[in-house]
Design brief:
With about 220 residues, the protein is mainly α. The chain has eleven helices and two strands; from the N terminus they run αααααβααααβαα. It is elongated.
Amino acid sequence: MLDDDKKRFIEVLIGLADYYEKNLSETTIALYWHGLRKYDLKAVERALFNHTQKPENGQFMPKVADIVLMLEGTSSDGAYIAWSKVDNAVKRAGIYADVAFDDWIIHRVILDMGGWILLCGKTEHEWPFIAKEFENRYRGYHIKRDAQEYPPLLIGIAGAENRKGGFKVDPPLLIGDTVKAQAVIAGGTNTPLIGMTQASNLLGEVAPSVMHKCLRAVA
């Protein structure tokens, strides 16, 4: 979550506490915030709601560990969280910047789907289908958990152009936990993998078709 999400998060948390007839101190609220802020707000809201529906322990106010277990406990939860990060990154970072996520599986799945530039170039109509494809691919890697090669960065238009022209490349935008994102960068490989050699070739084909989305992403 971003700092801008804190107000909404607190509102949701207090509403949940009211549901369970609990009073939360500022210290307790801060514990929830710091314990859950690395996750996407929508994913957290979904997990909190799902907790209330559980017959085995839904009658009790969830602790941070309960929510983390729901968010990370299954491949489906992990896929949803990962897609939320990607969706937000496309809208906030856009197609031009190089990005690095805090989850190597995201890098590998986006690579398998053609790369960051191609992903950002998808239309609004295609987006729900892209989300489903991403989550299905993510679950596959999450379940196997086999070590896979993946690109250290997901290259945007500016990064591809600057590398092609031998110009200075700006540092990537780190998405999610910055320490984990840096570890993902360190563990990636620059050896050409399927899809990695296509970035510069895609510019001429994709750029005209993505102008509308680019403008939407940076608006």
